[in-house]
Amino acid sequence: MGGKPSDAATTTPAKPTASEEDLDAAAEIIQAAALGSPEPAPVASASALQSQKDAERYDPIVASQLEALKELYKLMDVNNDGNLQASELMTVVSQYTGSVFKENEFFNWYNKHGASSMQGVDGQVSLKEFGWYMADVALTFGEADDAKSALPTIIKAFKKLASGRTPLLSAIFSELDVTGRHAQCWP
Known about the structure:
Number of strands: 0
Strand content: under 5%
Distance between the termini: 112 Å
Order of helices and strands: HHHHHHHHH
Helix content: 55-70%
Radius of gyration: 31 Å
Largest sheet: none
C-alpha cells in the first residue's frame, strides 16, 4: 500500500493570477517607495477651519453694509494707518457695550480673523475683522435677517460715539432703537 500517491494529492493548487489593475497598483506602490512618496496634501488648520466657519456666519450679515462699515472704520482710524488699535477702539466699544474695554479679550477673539489670520494676533483690527466684530454685535439682536436689519442701527450708534457727539449710550438707543426691543436693557 505504500504505492504512489494519487494525482489528486500531488497537484499543487492553482496560483491566483493578478489582474492588470493589480499589477499597475503594485507598480505604483513600488515606484512611490523607491522615489519617496510625494508630500501629502496640506490639512486645513483648526484656525483656517474656524475662519471659514466665521466667514460663512458673518459675511452675509456684513455684505449689504460694507460701504457704511468702511466709512465707520475710516472715522475710527484716528491715525489713518489703515488698522484699528486698542486706543482707537476703546472708547467707542466700551461706550457701546456699557462695560470696560478688555483689550486682551477683544484682540484674542477678533484679531484672529481677516488679513492678519495667517500671522496671528498683531494688535490691530483690519476692516474684515472689524466687520466680523460688528456682525457679532448684530447677532445679539437675533440670527440671520434680524442681525442684518440691526446692523445699520448699530453702525449709526458707533458713528455717533466715534464722532463724540453723543456720549451716552442710552441717548443713542432712545434715538435709534426703532424696534423698542432693547430699550429696557439700557439705563
